[in-house]
Amino acid sequence: ISNDLVTEMLFEPRGEGLAVACKASGIGKASFTSIFAISRKTRPGGGKNLRQQTNRALSFFDMVSEDAAGKVLTRWQSGGKYLSVIRNLELGTPKK
After folding, report:
1. pLDDT band at 34, cuts 50/70/90?
2. Which residues are CB-contacts of 66 (< 8 A; sequence separation ≥ 6)?
3. How far apart are CA 38 and CA 25, in angstroms?
4. Would you state the pLDDT for residue 90?
5. DSSP-derived secondary structure letter, 3
6. How far is CA 86 from CA 46, 49, 74, 82, in A?
7. SS3 of 94, please?
8. What is the per-residue DSSP string for 10-79?
9. How far is CA 68 from CA 22, 53, 88, 94, 96, in A?
């Protein structure tokens, strides 16, 4: 995926793209949480409400199956629009 997409993913307010990329790459919940928190702290005012932001992002991370995340990543690699691909995501059944 492009550098612009990675940047957008890291700084997108809700963290959905980062959650999808981590899930598709097999990155676990604890590592995703750390990456998300660091990415929030680099944004102006990003440390505000960090717990609430993290909980919302974790809820999304838990809802997305690895299969669905992989499909989104494939669409991004073929030039799909970042947020529209996420909005059209079929969450699937997450693995426990």
Report:
1. very high
2. 23, 24, 26, 94, 95
3. 18
4. 54
5. H
6. 22, 23, 12, 7
7. coil
8. HH-TT-HHHHHHHHHTT--HHHHHHHHHHHHHTSTTTTTTHHHHHHHHHHHHHHS-HHHHHHHHHHHHTT
9. 12, 22, 11, 9, 15
Instruction: Identify the CA nearest to 57 among candidates 71, 70, 40, 81.
Output: 40
Using an 8 Å Cβ cutoff, are 73 and 21 in contact?
A: yes
First to last CA, the chain: 28
